[in-house]
Protein backbone atom coordinates (compact mmCIF):
# COMPACT_ATOMS: atom_id res chain seq x y z
CA UNK A 1 0.00 0.00 0.00
CA UNK A 2 1.35 3.46 -0.83
CA UNK A 3 2.07 5.71 2.14
CA UNK A 4 -0.66 8.24 1.24
CA UNK A 5 -3.38 5.58 0.99
CA UNK A 6 -2.15 4.02 4.17
CA UNK A 7 -2.29 7.33 6.02
CA UNK A 8 -5.85 7.89 4.76
CA UNK A 9 -6.95 4.59 6.20
CA UNK A 10 -5.14 5.44 9.44
CA UNK A 11 -6.99 8.76 9.69
CA UNK A 12 -10.28 6.89 9.37
CA UNK A 13 -9.24 4.31 11.92
CA UNK A 14 -7.85 6.73 14.46
CA UNK A 15 -10.41 9.51 14.49
CA UNK A 16 -12.93 7.83 16.75
CA UNK A 17 -10.25 6.12 18.76
CA UNK A 18 -8.40 9.26 19.72
CA UNK A 19 -10.84 11.23 21.79
CA UNK A 20 -12.93 9.12 24.16
CA UNK A 21 -12.64 10.00 27.86
CA UNK A 22 -9.98 12.66 27.33
CA UNK A 23 -10.26 14.66 30.52
CA UNK A 24 -9.62 18.37 30.48
CA UNK A 25 -6.88 19.27 32.90
CA UNK A 26 -6.21 22.76 34.13
CA UNK A 27 -3.12 24.33 32.72
CA UNK A 28 -0.48 25.78 34.99
CA UNK A 29 1.45 28.90 34.02
CA UNK A 30 5.02 28.60 32.83
CA UNK A 31 6.25 30.34 36.00
CA UNK A 32 4.31 27.89 38.13
CA UNK A 33 5.64 24.96 36.09
CA UNK A 34 9.24 26.19 36.48
CA UNK A 35 8.79 26.49 40.21
CA UNK A 36 7.14 23.07 40.60
CA UNK A 37 9.60 21.20 38.39
CA UNK A 38 12.57 22.70 40.18
CA UNK A 39 11.32 21.21 43.46
CA UNK A 40 11.85 17.62 42.19
CA UNK A 41 14.92 15.71 41.19
CA UNK A 42 14.66 14.18 37.69
CA UNK A 43 15.26 10.73 39.21
CA UNK A 44 12.01 11.17 41.18
CA UNK A 45 9.02 9.71 39.23
CA UNK A 46 7.04 12.79 40.35
CA UNK A 47 9.26 14.89 38.08
CA UNK A 48 8.09 13.00 34.95
CA UNK A 49 4.52 12.65 36.25
CA UNK A 50 4.29 16.44 36.59
CA UNK A 51 5.47 16.76 32.97
CA UNK A 52 3.03 14.11 31.73
CA UNK A 53 0.16 15.96 33.43
CA UNK A 54 0.84 19.04 31.32
CA UNK A 55 -0.29 17.29 28.12
CA UNK A 56 -3.79 16.62 26.81
CA UNK A 57 -2.87 13.14 25.52
CA UNK A 58 -5.52 10.79 27.02
CA UNK A 59 -4.18 8.63 29.83
CA UNK A 60 -5.16 5.42 28.04
CA UNK A 61 -3.52 6.44 24.77
CA UNK A 62 0.13 5.61 24.15
CA UNK A 63 1.53 8.25 21.86
CA UNK A 64 4.82 7.13 20.32
CA UNK A 65 5.09 9.32 17.22
CA UNK A 66 6.75 12.57 18.27
CA UNK A 67 8.97 12.16 15.20
CA UNK A 68 5.78 12.75 13.20
CA UNK A 69 4.22 15.45 15.36
CA UNK A 70 4.69 16.50 18.96
CA UNK A 71 1.90 17.22 21.41
CA UNK A 72 2.01 20.72 22.93
CA UNK A 73 1.63 21.21 26.67
CA UNK A 74 -1.49 23.09 27.84
CA UNK A 75 0.57 26.17 28.58
CA UNK A 76 1.56 26.47 24.89
CA UNK A 77 -2.02 26.18 23.65
CA UNK A 78 -2.99 28.73 26.29
CA UNK A 79 -0.32 31.17 25.12
CA UNK A 80 -1.44 30.84 21.48
CA UNK A 81 -5.06 31.43 22.48
CA UNK A 82 -4.17 34.42 24.64
CA UNK A 83 -2.11 36.04 21.86
CA UNK A 84 -4.79 35.26 19.26
CA UNK A 85 -7.46 36.84 21.46
CA UNK A 86 -5.37 40.00 21.80
CA UNK A 87 -5.03 40.16 18.01
CA UNK A 88 -8.76 39.69 17.54
CA UNK A 89 -9.53 42.38 20.07
CA UNK A 90 -7.01 44.85 18.71
CA UNK A 91 -6.08 43.70 15.19
CA UNK A 92 -2.53 44.82 14.37
CA UNK A 93 -1.11 43.75 11.02
CA UNK A 94 2.54 44.30 11.96
CA UNK A 95 4.04 41.83 14.39
CA UNK A 96 5.88 43.27 17.36
CA UNK A 97 9.52 43.08 16.26
CA UNK A 98 10.86 43.43 19.76
CA UNK A 99 8.94 40.33 20.88
CA UNK A 100 9.82 38.58 17.58
CA UNK A 101 13.55 39.06 18.25
CA UNK A 102 13.09 37.63 21.75
CA UNK A 103 11.66 34.45 20.18
CA UNK A 104 14.68 34.34 17.87
CA UNK A 105 17.00 34.74 20.85
CA UNK A 106 15.46 31.61 22.42
CA UNK A 107 15.76 29.70 19.12
CA UNK A 108 19.38 30.83 18.72
CA UNK A 109 20.07 29.58 22.22
CA UNK A 110 18.68 26.15 21.35
CA UNK A 111 20.74 26.05 18.11
CA UNK A 112 23.94 27.57 19.54
CA UNK A 113 24.11 30.55 17.17
CA UNK A 114 23.31 34.27 17.00
CA UNK A 115 19.75 35.51 16.67
CA UNK A 116 20.68 37.30 13.43
CA UNK A 117 21.31 33.87 11.89
CA UNK A 118 17.75 32.70 12.61
CA UNK A 119 14.69 32.99 10.36
CA UNK A 120 11.30 31.95 11.72
CA UNK A 121 9.61 29.81 9.09
CA UNK A 122 6.48 27.69 8.80
CA UNK A 123 8.12 24.25 8.95
CA UNK A 124 11.40 22.46 8.25
CA UNK A 125 10.30 21.98 4.63
CA UNK A 126 10.23 25.76 4.15
CA UNK A 127 13.69 26.09 5.70
CA UNK A 128 15.02 23.49 3.26
CA UNK A 129 13.34 25.15 0.26
CA UNK A 130 14.79 28.57 1.12
CA UNK A 131 18.34 27.22 1.03
CA UNK A 132 18.05 24.61 -1.72
CA UNK A 133 16.41 27.09 -4.09
CA UNK A 134 18.54 30.07 -3.08
CA UNK A 135 22.03 28.54 -3.36
CA UNK A 136 23.99 29.44 -6.51
CA UNK A 137 23.95 25.95 -8.06
CA UNK A 138 24.49 25.47 -11.80
CA UNK A 139 23.78 22.68 -14.27
CA UNK A 140 26.05 19.72 -13.51
CA UNK A 141 26.76 20.78 -9.90
CA UNK A 142 26.44 17.80 -7.59
CA UNK A 143 24.66 17.36 -4.26
CA UNK A 144 25.27 14.36 -2.01
CA UNK A 145 22.44 13.03 0.15
CA UNK A 146 21.51 9.76 1.83
CA UNK A 147 18.88 7.31 0.58
CA UNK A 148 17.10 7.92 3.91
CA UNK A 149 16.11 11.57 3.46
CA UNK A 150 12.57 12.71 4.13
CA UNK A 151 10.38 13.91 1.23
CA UNK A 152 11.00 17.40 2.65
CA UNK A 153 14.61 17.13 1.44
CA UNK A 154 14.22 14.88 -1.58
CA UNK A 155 11.47 16.86 -3.28
CA UNK A 156 13.06 20.35 -3.17
CA UNK A 157 16.37 18.83 -4.34
CA UNK A 158 14.68 16.92 -7.16
CA UNK A 159 12.77 20.05 -8.10
CA UNK A 160 16.06 21.94 -8.40
CA UNK A 161 17.53 19.03 -10.39
CA UNK A 162 14.61 19.17 -12.85
CA UNK A 163 14.71 22.94 -13.11
CA UNK A 164 18.44 23.65 -13.17
CA UNK A 165 20.10 20.33 -13.98
CA UNK A 166 21.90 19.76 -10.68
CA UNK A 167 22.88 16.13 -10.10
CA UNK A 168 21.87 14.19 -6.99
CA UNK A 169 24.11 11.40 -5.68
CA UNK A 170 23.01 9.15 -2.84
CA UNK A 171 24.64 6.84 -0.34
CA UNK A 172 23.01 4.28 1.95
CA UNK A 173 23.64 5.13 5.63
CA UNK A 174 25.84 2.57 7.33
CA UNK A 175 23.92 1.60 10.45
CA UNK A 176 26.74 -0.46 11.93
CA UNK A 177 29.79 1.68 11.66
CA UNK A 178 30.14 5.41 12.38
CA UNK A 179 33.22 5.83 10.19
CA UNK A 180 31.54 3.87 7.40
CA UNK A 181 29.28 6.82 6.68
CA UNK A 182 32.20 9.14 6.10
CA UNK A 183 33.79 6.64 3.75
CA UNK A 184 30.58 6.21 1.76
CA UNK A 185 30.11 9.93 1.52
CA UNK A 186 33.72 10.71 0.61
CA UNK A 187 33.63 8.21 -2.26
CA UNK A 188 30.90 10.28 -3.93
CA UNK A 189 32.78 13.61 -3.82
CA UNK A 190 33.99 14.85 -7.22
CA UNK A 191 35.15 18.20 -8.60
CA UNK A 192 31.51 19.08 -9.26
CA UNK A 193 30.27 18.46 -5.70
CA UNK A 194 28.98 21.64 -4.04
CA UNK A 195 26.62 20.59 -1.27
CA UNK A 196 26.18 17.77 1.24
CA UNK A 197 22.56 17.51 2.38
CA UNK A 198 21.92 14.99 5.14
CA UNK A 199 19.52 14.47 8.00
CA UNK A 200 21.17 15.02 11.34
CA UNK A 201 18.93 12.21 12.64
CA UNK A 202 17.23 10.19 9.92
CA UNK A 203 13.45 9.90 9.93
CA UNK A 204 13.76 6.25 8.91
CA UNK A 205 15.77 4.42 11.56
CA UNK A 206 16.38 7.33 13.93
CA UNK A 207 20.06 7.10 13.12
CA UNK A 208 22.24 10.00 14.18
CA UNK A 209 24.79 10.78 11.50
CA UNK A 210 28.29 11.88 12.54
CA UNK A 211 27.58 15.60 12.18
CA UNK A 212 30.96 16.99 13.24
CA UNK A 213 32.93 14.59 11.05
CA UNK A 214 30.68 15.23 8.03
CA UNK A 215 31.04 19.00 8.47
CA UNK A 216 34.82 18.72 8.84
CA UNK A 217 35.07 16.60 5.69
CA UNK A 218 32.92 19.12 3.82
CA UNK A 219 35.03 22.06 4.99
CA UNK A 220 38.27 20.27 4.05
CA UNK A 221 36.85 19.81 0.55
CA UNK A 222 35.35 23.31 0.31
CA UNK A 223 31.70 22.13 0.26
CA UNK A 224 28.55 23.50 1.89
CA UNK A 225 26.72 21.33 4.43
CA UNK A 226 23.01 21.41 5.18
CA UNK A 227 21.95 19.40 8.23
CA UNK A 228 18.24 18.66 8.23
CA UNK A 229 17.52 18.76 11.96
CA UNK A 230 13.74 18.21 11.85
CA UNK A 231 14.21 15.29 14.26
CA UNK A 232 16.73 16.89 16.59
CA UNK A 233 16.24 20.11 18.61
CA UNK A 234 14.03 19.36 21.58
CA UNK A 235 15.22 15.74 21.60
CA UNK A 236 18.90 16.39 22.24
CA UNK A 237 21.24 19.35 22.75
CA UNK A 238 22.38 21.00 19.50
CA UNK A 239 25.34 23.25 18.69
CA UNK A 240 25.43 24.29 15.04
CA UNK A 241 28.53 26.40 15.53
CA UNK A 242 30.45 23.51 17.01
CA UNK A 243 29.28 21.21 14.21
CA UNK A 244 30.46 23.72 11.63
CA UNK A 245 27.45 23.33 9.33
CA UNK A 246 26.37 26.08 6.94
CA UNK A 247 22.62 25.55 7.23
CA UNK A 248 20.35 23.87 9.75
CA UNK A 249 16.60 23.69 10.04
CA UNK A 250 14.00 22.16 12.31
CA UNK A 251 10.26 21.91 12.87
CA UNK A 252 8.76 23.67 15.87
CA UNK A 253 5.94 21.10 16.00
CA UNK A 254 7.87 17.90 16.67
CA UNK A 255 10.39 17.51 19.53
CA UNK A 256 10.19 21.20 20.46
CA UNK A 257 6.49 20.71 21.33
CA UNK A 258 5.54 24.00 19.72
CA UNK A 259 2.40 25.01 17.82
CA UNK A 260 1.74 23.34 14.49
CA UNK A 261 3.15 25.13 11.43
CA UNK A 262 6.25 26.58 13.05
CA UNK A 263 9.86 26.07 12.04
CA UNK A 264 13.34 27.50 12.49
CA UNK A 265 16.06 28.06 9.90
CA UNK A 266 19.73 28.77 10.66
CA UNK A 267 21.89 30.37 7.98
CA UNK A 268 25.49 30.95 9.04
CA UNK A 269 26.30 34.67 9.03
CA UNK A 270 28.96 34.26 6.33
CA UNK A 271 26.36 32.62 4.05
CA UNK A 272 23.64 35.25 4.28
CA UNK A 273 24.71 36.89 1.01
CA UNK A 274 25.21 33.50 -0.64
CA UNK A 275 21.60 32.33 -0.46
CA UNK A 276 19.37 34.40 -2.72
CA UNK A 277 16.03 35.02 -1.00
CA UNK A 278 13.44 33.88 -3.56
CA UNK A 279 10.14 34.41 -1.76
CA UNK A 280 10.29 37.94 -0.39
CA UNK A 281 8.14 40.88 0.64
CA UNK A 282 7.60 43.28 3.52
CA UNK A 283 10.13 42.51 6.32
CA UNK A 284 12.68 40.95 3.90
CA UNK A 285 13.95 44.36 2.89
CA UNK A 286 15.95 47.09 4.54
CA UNK A 287 14.62 49.68 2.09
CA UNK A 288 13.75 49.75 -1.59
CA UNK A 289 12.81 52.10 -4.39
CA UNK A 290 10.85 51.03 -7.46
CA UNK A 291 11.68 54.38 -9.12
CA UNK A 292 15.42 53.88 -8.63
CA UNK A 293 15.26 50.10 -9.16
CA UNK A 294 16.89 49.58 -5.78
CA UNK A 295 16.41 46.80 -3.24
CA UNK A 296 18.39 46.19 -0.09
CA UNK A 297 17.75 43.07 2.01
CA UNK A 298 17.83 42.94 5.78
CA UNK A 299 21.38 42.24 6.97
CA UNK A 300 20.11 39.32 9.12
CA UNK A 301 18.24 36.10 8.25
CA UNK A 302 15.08 38.21 8.53
CA UNK A 303 15.62 38.64 4.75
CA UNK A 304 13.99 35.19 4.37
CA UNK A 305 10.80 36.27 6.20
CA UNK A 306 7.99 38.10 4.46
CA UNK A 307 4.44 39.35 4.81
CA UNK A 308 1.86 39.07 7.57
CA UNK A 309 2.79 36.58 10.27
CA UNK A 310 0.77 34.64 12.80
CA UNK A 311 2.84 35.83 15.76
CA UNK A 312 0.71 33.88 18.26
CA UNK A 313 2.23 30.66 16.89
CA UNK A 314 5.77 31.85 17.47
CA UNK A 315 5.04 33.23 20.93
CA UNK A 316 3.65 29.75 21.60
CA UNK A 317 6.91 28.27 20.29
CA UNK A 318 8.81 30.51 22.70
CA UNK A 319 6.70 29.14 25.58
CA UNK A 320 7.37 25.57 24.38
CA UNK A 321 11.11 26.29 24.48
CA UNK A 322 10.72 27.77 27.99
CA UNK A 323 8.89 24.59 28.99
CA UNK A 324 11.70 22.35 27.67
CA UNK A 325 14.37 24.58 29.21
CA UNK A 326 12.62 24.33 32.57
CA UNK A 327 13.00 20.53 32.32
CA UNK A 328 16.53 20.86 30.89
CA UNK A 329 17.43 19.60 27.41
CA UNK A 330 20.12 17.32 28.86
CA UNK A 331 17.52 15.68 31.07
CA UNK A 332 15.09 15.33 28.18
CA UNK A 333 17.79 13.60 26.09
CA UNK A 334 18.72 11.30 28.97
CA UNK A 335 15.04 10.40 29.58
CA UNK A 336 14.15 9.87 25.90
CA UNK A 337 17.29 7.80 25.29
CA UNK A 338 16.70 5.67 28.40
CA UNK A 339 13.19 4.75 27.23
CA UNK A 340 14.33 4.09 23.66
CA UNK A 341 17.23 2.00 24.94
CA UNK A 342 15.01 -0.06 27.25
CA UNK A 343 12.73 -0.66 24.26
CA UNK A 344 15.64 -1.52 21.93
CA UNK A 345 17.27 -3.98 24.33
CA UNK A 346 14.05 -5.99 24.70
CA UNK A 347 13.03 -5.66 21.05
CA UNK A 348 16.20 -7.34 19.76
CA UNK A 349 15.34 -10.41 21.83
CA UNK A 350 11.90 -10.96 20.25
CA UNK A 351 11.69 -13.71 17.65
CA UNK A 352 10.47 -12.57 14.21
CA UNK A 353 11.61 -8.99 14.89
CA UNK A 354 14.26 -7.34 12.79
CA UNK A 355 15.57 -4.11 14.34
CA UNK A 356 16.74 -1.60 11.74
CA UNK A 357 18.06 1.07 14.10
CA UNK A 358 21.85 1.22 14.42
CA UNK A 359 23.75 -1.54 16.15
CA UNK A 360 26.32 0.95 17.38
CA UNK A 361 24.92 2.71 20.43
CA UNK A 362 26.42 6.11 19.54
CA UNK A 363 24.13 6.19 16.52
CA UNK A 364 20.94 5.41 18.41
CA UNK A 365 18.50 8.13 19.43
CA UNK A 366 14.98 8.41 20.83
CA UNK A 367 13.51 6.73 17.72
CA UNK A 368 13.76 2.99 17.12
CA UNK A 369 12.64 1.26 13.92
CA UNK A 370 11.82 -2.39 13.34
CA UNK A 371 9.91 -4.75 11.09
CA UNK A 372 8.68 -8.29 11.53
CA UNK A 373 9.13 -11.42 9.48
CA UNK A 374 5.59 -12.73 10.04
CA UNK A 375 3.52 -9.58 9.55
CA UNK A 376 3.73 -6.51 7.31
CA UNK A 377 4.47 -3.01 8.63
CA UNK A 378 0.99 -1.63 7.80
CA UNK A 379 -0.68 -4.46 9.72
CA UNK A 380 1.60 -3.84 12.70
CA UNK A 381 0.67 -0.14 12.71
CA UNK A 382 -3.06 -0.88 12.42
CA UNK A 383 -2.93 -3.54 15.12
CA UNK A 384 -1.12 -1.20 17.51
CA UNK A 385 -3.63 1.55 16.74
CA UNK A 386 -6.44 -0.81 17.73
CA UNK A 387 -4.61 -1.16 21.04
CA UNK A 388 -4.41 2.63 21.26
CA UNK A 389 -0.70 2.82 20.55
CA UNK A 390 0.33 5.31 17.87
CA UNK A 391 3.54 4.68 15.93
CA UNK A 392 4.65 5.66 12.40
CA UNK A 393 5.03 3.54 9.27
CA UNK A 394 8.37 3.98 7.48
CA UNK A 395 8.33 3.55 3.72
CA UNK A 396 11.29 5.83 2.98
CA UNK A 397 14.36 3.97 1.69
CA UNK A 398 11.93 1.09 0.93
CA UNK A 399 12.22 -0.03 4.54
CA UNK A 400 8.53 -0.97 5.02
CA UNK A 401 9.00 -0.78 8.77
CA UNK A 402 7.62 0.80 11.95
CA UNK A 403 9.16 3.69 13.89
CA UNK A 404 8.65 4.25 17.61
CA UNK A 405 9.49 7.64 19.17
CA UNK A 406 9.89 8.36 22.89
CA UNK A 407 9.60 11.84 24.39
CA UNK A 408 8.93 13.64 27.67
CA UNK A 409 5.31 12.47 28.00
CA UNK A 410 6.31 8.81 27.70
CA UNK A 411 7.32 6.49 30.51
CA UNK A 412 8.35 2.91 31.29
CA UNK A 413 4.70 1.78 31.14
CA UNK A 414 4.52 2.87 27.50
CA UNK A 415 7.65 0.82 26.77
CA UNK A 416 6.16 -2.22 28.51
CA UNK A 417 2.82 -1.78 26.72
CA UNK A 418 4.22 -1.68 23.20
CA UNK A 419 6.68 -4.52 23.90
CA UNK A 420 3.86 -6.71 25.16
CA UNK A 421 1.82 -6.08 21.98
CA UNK A 422 4.82 -6.74 19.72
CA UNK A 423 5.36 -10.04 21.56
CA UNK A 424 1.72 -10.92 20.88
CA UNK A 425 2.23 -10.15 17.21
CA UNK A 426 5.44 -12.16 17.06
CA UNK A 427 3.53 -15.24 18.20
CA UNK A 428 0.59 -14.78 15.83
C1 LIG B 1 14.15 14.48 8.54
C2 LIG B 1 12.93 15.30 8.28
N1 LIG B 1 13.03 16.44 7.57
C3 LIG B 1 11.97 17.22 7.33
C4 LIG B 1 10.73 16.88 7.79
C5 LIG B 1 9.55 17.77 7.47
O1 LIG B 1 9.19 18.53 8.56
P1 LIG B 1 8.04 19.65 8.42
O2 LIG B 1 6.78 18.92 8.25
O3 LIG B 1 8.16 20.44 9.66
O4 LIG B 1 8.36 20.46 7.23
C6 LIG B 1 10.55 15.70 8.53
C7 LIG B 1 9.22 15.34 9.04
O5 LIG B 1 8.97 14.28 9.54
C8 LIG B 1 11.68 14.89 8.78
O6 LIG B 1 11.59 13.76 9.48
TrEMBL record:
Question: What residues does the Aminotransferase class V domain cover?
Answer: 99-417
UniProt keyword terms in alphabetical order:
Lyase, Pyridoxal phosphate
SUPFAM superfamilies membership: PLP-dependent transferases
InterPro entries listed in its UniProt record:
Aminotrans_V_dom, PyrdxlP-dep_Trfase, PyrdxlP-dep_Trfase_major, PyrdxlP-dep_Trfase_small
Q: Does the keyword Lyase apply?
A: yes
Its domain of life reads: Bacteria
Q: Matching Pfam families, A to Z? A: Aminotran_5 (PF00266)
Keyword Lyase set for record:
yes
Please give one Gene Ontology molecular function term for this protein: lyase activity
**Protein name, UniProt field:** Cysteine desulfurase / selenocysteine lyase
Q: Which organism is it from?
A: Candidatus Kryptonium thompsonii
